[in-house]
Design brief:
The protein has 337 residues and is of the alpha/beta class. It has helices at residues 24-39, 53-61, 80-94, 105-118, 227-239, 248-253, 283-289, 306-309, 318-336, and strands spanning 10-13, 43-49, 66-71, 98-102, 122-126, 128-131, 138-144, 149-153, 161-165, 182-184, 216-220, 243-246, 273-277, 294-299, 312-315. The longest helix is centred in the C-terminal third of the chain and has 19 residues, at 318-336. The N and C termini lie far apart (65 Å). Bound molecules: flavin-adenine dinucleotide.
């Protein structure tokens, strides 16, 4: 095997499932490059699977200096035990300083296992990453106390410094077909058959929601009042050619599907315009919308915290204001045709 320093100090787990929608690996490569610049190292993506060369090329095109690939038929499906075993071997062999994964369902499942095996720490669901200028340690910003506080976390004594990161908090680099990077195939060694095997996986057929890329989002909270009222938000979003987002109570009430959740446990978005209706402004929600360029808030409570972050606030009843807004937009769309 090659010498450790040739394998980069900052590793990112390559989660290529649902590649065109799940961009968190690309976002981490971009941030990883910033961090690697500070500590003077390279960014390596760890890619496990079968027939995955195209993804290795994609990662290079999006900024990876190096892609370390294990390509075997038995890695075709995501298998927690097998993946953990390979990653443990490679970490012990090549000793990265930092290892990051997206806080996806898979990252949340296997990264804690890996951290435990390696006897190191792990911060979950980070919303920012930096290098502490004094200590040179990875400064991991993670929600804590149920999201009431953002905590700065460091891993001073054990390696690697591991974190899962919330999708959407960093911006991916543009695709550069001329980018140059190395693709290497380190030894994997013998693999014990896993005790649990995933036989196959199938994508659930749902309408695809592109909240991350939306330029306009109309988001609603409990204050919208009912499923019927919430449908008005879909009409508004259609008129504005935008998408619909929601707070947790809306998802729990079944007024919108879970992929529309914004916030700490949902998506972080960066639209040009976000209209937020009947949302009090809880930190767990506003974490997901603070990247919006302009925020217009509608709420009947003039003291609602959402008004503190809004660029424009309308105090009023959603039941009255939403139909008025819809009529105004319909007229505008009709006259602009
Ligand atoms: C660990 C953890 C993680 C969480 N993650 C998330 C997350 O990712 N995303 C998320 O959204 N939440 C999350 N939450 C929940 C979060 O704390 C809040 O409870 C939630 O965001 C509140 O949603 P809301 O604003 O819709 O409801 P509420 O806080 O109940 O606010 C409703 C608002 O509607 C207004 N209103 C009521 N009636 C009307 C009307 N007729 N017209 C106009 N305004 C009206 C009220 O004045 C109020 O401001 C999390 C909580 C925990 C503990």
């Amino acid at each position: 095997m090659a010498v450790n320093r040739e394998m980069g100090k900052i590793w990112i787990f390559g989660d290529y499932r649902n590649y065109f929608q799940n961009r968190v690996t690309l976002q981490l490569i971009s941030r990883g490059k910033d961090l690697a610049g500070v500590i003077g190292s390279e960014t390596a993506v760890i890619l496990l699977g079968h027939d995955v060369h195209q993804y290795a090329m994609e990662y290079v095109a999006h900024g990876a200096d190096l892609v370390m690939v294990a390509d075997r038929p038995e890695l075709k499906e995501y298998q927690v035990e097998t993946y953990t075993a390979i990653l443990e071997r490679w970490v012990r062999a090549f000793e990265p300083e930092i290892f990051l994964a997206g806080a996806t369902s898979f990252g949340r499942e296997f990264f804690p296992r890996l951290a435990k095996r390696l006897g190191t720490g792990l911060s979950a669901d980070c919303v920012d990453l930096d290098i502490d200028p004094e200590s040179g340690l990875l400064l991991q910003t993670a929600p804590s106390f149920g999201g009431e506080l953002l905590a700065g976390v460091v891993t001073p004594a054990s390696r690697p410094q591991m974190a899962t990161v919330h999708p959407g908090v960093f911006q991916e680099l543009p695709h550069d077909a001329g980018a140059v990077g190395r693709i290497v195939y380190p030894e994997v060694g013998d693999l014990a058959p896993p005790r649990v095997r995933l036989l196959h996986s199938r994508r659930q057929e749902t309408h695809t929601v592109h909240l991350e890329d939306a330029a306009i989002i109309v988001a609603g909270g409990r204050g919208v009042g009912s499923r019927e009222q919430f449908r008005l938000l879909f009409e508004l979003a259609d008129l504005l050619e935008g998408e619909v987002g929601a707070t947790r109570p809306v998802i729990l009430s079944g007024w919108a599907r879970p992929e529309r959740l914004l916030g700490q446990t949902g998506m972080s978005v960066k639209p040009r315009l976000l209209i937020t209706v009947g949302t009090s402004g809880a930190l767990q929600y506003t974490t997901g919308i603070e990247g919006a360029e302009t925020i217009i808030a509608i709420d009947r409570d003039p003291e609602a915290p959402i008004f503190k972050m809004a660029d424009l606030g309308l105090v009023g009843d959603a039941k009255v204001l939403l139909p008025l807004l819809r009529e105004a937009l319909r007229k505008r769309v009709a006259t602009s045709r």
